């Protein structure tokens, strides 16, 4: 997870949508204020007990669609592994996704980062992330599952290099996804509106939900 360290700075105030070992590792790396949330009281109670001795880690039971407990622009970063994916499998997925992402956008300070770690490729995630209300500038990384061995003769590019995307934020037509179980990592930076004035935004469609 070295690439995470490229843009996260220790004194940052982080909101983590319950990512088990990552929060512990972030505390070990020096992050001082890490709020972890999940809608499951069982998960939160377990984690609270497990990390009782780590003062940097705080836990709260909360629905990501309503994080009104926190004031606007109160976090430098939000990390999500699997929470948006979980909402996308539920009923009213598009509404839930819009509620969650609207809340994430509200909570981020200007210049803050939303990192989405997901199984959803750009064709099903970019329509959600590119809504103008969020003003997010998004960079994509693709990380194969641990232990995946690249086929002989494939690209020697590091997985820590951003993936070049089309002007719609999609994978280029000739892009070869070597490991179909890869994680897609979207690093979305909250920008001011002028930075995005020329960016392409496209509507949600039924086939991406
Ligand atoms: C696929 S799991 C991912 C768990 C963890 N992030 C990981 O990577 O190991 C999805 C998590 O999202 C939580 N979740 C689902 N809907 C939620 C909601 N509306 N608000 C907050 N958490 C939610 C579930 O309780 C579950 O812990």
UniProtKB/TrEMBL annotation:
InterPro entries: Lys/N-term_MeTrsfase_sf (IPR051419), Methyltransf_11 (IPR013216), SAM-dependent_MTases_sf (IPR029063). Residues 1-23 form the signal peptide. It comes from the Eukaryota. Residues 23-115 form the Methyltransferase type domain. Keywords: Methyltransferase, Signal, Transferase. Belongs to the methyltransferase superfamily. This is Uncharacterized protein LOC132799216 isoform X3.
